[in-house]
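All the exercises in this workshop are built on plain-text protein records. The record below serves as our worked example for the rest of this section.
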Amino acid sequence: MAALTPTATAAPRDDTPSGGGGTVRARRPRRRIWRGVVLAVAGVYFVVPLLASFVFTVHTPGQGVSFDAYTGILSADGFTQSLFLSLGLAAATIALVLLLTVPALIAVRLGAPRLRSVVEVVCMLPLVVPPIALVSGITTVLRWGPDHLSTTPLYQTFIAVQDESFPLVLVFAYTVLALPFVYRSLDAGLSAINVTTLVEAARNCGARIPYTVLRVILPNLRSALASASFLTLALVLGEYTIAALLGFRPFAVWIVSISGSEAQTSVAVSLLSLLITWLLLLVLSRVGSRSGAGAGVAAAAGSAPAGGSVSGAGSSPAAPSASPASSAAKE
């Protein structure tokens, strides 16, 4: 009778969800409709300006449709120089910001977890400080340096960082601006893995810290490093305020500078850069999902023998546990 009691009480429980499930199922189509409405409004909000920009680049009143704005991009004056300058600045910024943040975050997680909040606040400060205030401070320092350090070797340093062919001052400024995005990406990647366990396992195998970081931790942070690099690249390619106020001409400044004389070309370049950014984002998301799926398959394959042994071991106690239940049912 004891075995039959749960069965009797289980029946009403099964009926209750089934009865309430009708109302839940009735509400789900309404939620889906509202979600579709929200997505449609958001799509219209983003797609309509893009379509209007595309029509502006290919249609000229009185002349019809022409794609000269797209075919003449490569031959536009200053396009190649500004693009290569922005790509070089992006590569230098990515290398510098990763060199600063990756060892710092790993060291904080291993040796000083209490400083994690301090590092987070420091990395989030660029979100609070406006770029106009940042460039104002940079301009003040660049004007103050040559006047007071003209008799010292640092004078040449101030001149070198302002070289128009490759302004290092922009690299330093972009590194500060990219800190919040890089920190969030790397922090999410480090939270997904157990850094302490990996380092201890590598030490038990005789590996040193540099080897552990390069061969154990960094391969597990590929998706986080890729997302941080992509966000930094997008930031450098689209940043205008600091470069324009400091008097340099990277890609974003070049687009604005030609907008007066070649409006269609500037809009066409903006659309192409936006599409390229979206394609990179899609590729990055696919790479991240594949790496995550590969890690899940590897983990499942590694745990399969253990799971098989546990299931086999668990099946043997299941038979004895069933015999008291069957005997109680017979009673």
